[in-house]
Structures are given as structure tokens and as C-alpha cells.
Amino acid sequence: MALADGGAATSEQRLQPPSLFLMLAEARCLFELNSSLLLSPLLLRAPKGDGHPVLALPGFLASDLSMAPMRRYLKELGYDTYAWHMGRNFGGVASKRGALRDLLRRIHESTGRKVSLVGWSLGGVYARDLALQMPDMVRSVITLGSPFANDIRATNATRLYEVLSGETVDDNLEIRQAIAGDLPVPATSIYSRTDGIVNWHTSLLRPSETAENIEVHFASHIGLGVNPAALWAVADRLAQAEGEFKHFDRSGPFAIAYGPPENAQS
């Protein structure tokens, strides 16, 4: 089982970034987007939302445009969706903490409701950090291909992240360890073993009564936020009543696309 301890990996635990083959295969993200468009009538049969606010946080080097399909989908289902409005995400977990806290506080105060956080890749790391800092304002956290556990250097974007953000992944060890640990709110990590950017072991949280991992077969990293099976899982998780949590039921229309629950712990 992969341990989400957030500490420095030993030589035995050292993970490698995904292979060049998997990285080149990320081009299939276009197929995932087209599949979602074709399957939109089926996707709209997902459980309806209760109108609570959902903040979508983009991944490294991405902007709000990358999350637009998901926000549009969730809005159609009845959620009050929000973009982060901070331009392109050039990284910086520590440097963006203040601005993200202010954003979450504004949404919470304007709606009077707890906010669900959906973060893609690095956006999911931000989401987990926000939930630790302001749990009273967060309803749930859903991450997609986010590297927050184990040896988080095991990505094909680590060096570029450090150059552009001005932070190294080894900075702020206390923050990093907290993000890798258990959250005070319900948490779901959606990941793919065929992720070409992030080693999937870094996306595994410790399963519990309020935390789970959901594997999406053959999904790419770049396409995970528009993959139809991933979108269905996000909608299903958000539809849970506030204060309640049941583990994901893989018997829905995309059942064949999900790994069994025990896969998340192997």
C-alpha cells in the first residue's frame, strides 16, 4: 500500500515519473473531451445538485479555461460554480495561500454555504491545503490526478514547477506533510494508473470512512478533468448531502471505467 505520509521518500520508496511512452500518450486527452461531448445526454443523468457553491481550481500552467467544461457541466446539474480568476497557474503552494483563503472566504460569505473544492492536478493540492486551513467553510474536496502523497517529485513537471513558481517541492515540509495526511472534511482522489504526468502513487490518500480513491482506467492526466467517467464520479460525489458520506458506487453507467475499491490500496 502506498503511504500518504508526505515525508521524504527513502531509497526503497523512491518513485519515478511516468514513462516517456505515457507522457506522449497524453495526446489522447482530445479523445476524452470528444467522448464527453458525445456522451453529454448520459452525463446529464447524473444526480442533480442542491445549488451549493463549487470552486474549480486549475492545474499547473492551466487557467480557468481548462476547467470551463467541468464548470459548465456542474452548472447544468444545478451547482453554483466558481472559477478562481487568478490567471494562469504558475504554481506556488505557499505563495498562493493568502489569495486562495480570501477567495474561499468571499464565496462562503456571499452564498452563506460551505464550498466544495474540485482541483485538477496542482489545483487539488491547493484544495487540500484550503480544507486544512478553513475546514468550517469547506464541504468536501475532490482532486483529479493531484500529486500530494509519497514522493511528490515523481512527476514530469517538477523541474518546470520549481523554475516558474520559485518554490521547490522540498520547501515547507510541514505544509506538505499536512496536505498528504487526513483531511477534516470528506475527500475523494480521482486518479489514473496511465497518467503520463504524475506518478499515480502520489495521488493516493489514506482510505477511511470519509476518504476514498477512485481509479479511472486509461485516463490521461491532461484529459482527466474532461473524461466522462471522471466527470460522472465528480458529479456523484458532489451530490451527497452535506455532512454525509458514502463510498462511490461503481455500478453506474460508467462502471467498466473504474478500478475496484481495493485497487486504491495496492
TrEMBL record:
Q: Which GO terms describe its molecular function?
A: hydrolase activity
Gene3D superfamilies the UniProt entry points to: alpha/beta hydrolase
> What keywords would UniProt list here?
Hydrolase
Q: Which InterPro entries match?
A: AB_hydrolase_fold
SUPFAM superfamilies for the chain: alpha/beta-Hydrolases
* Record-given protein name: Alpha/beta hydrolase
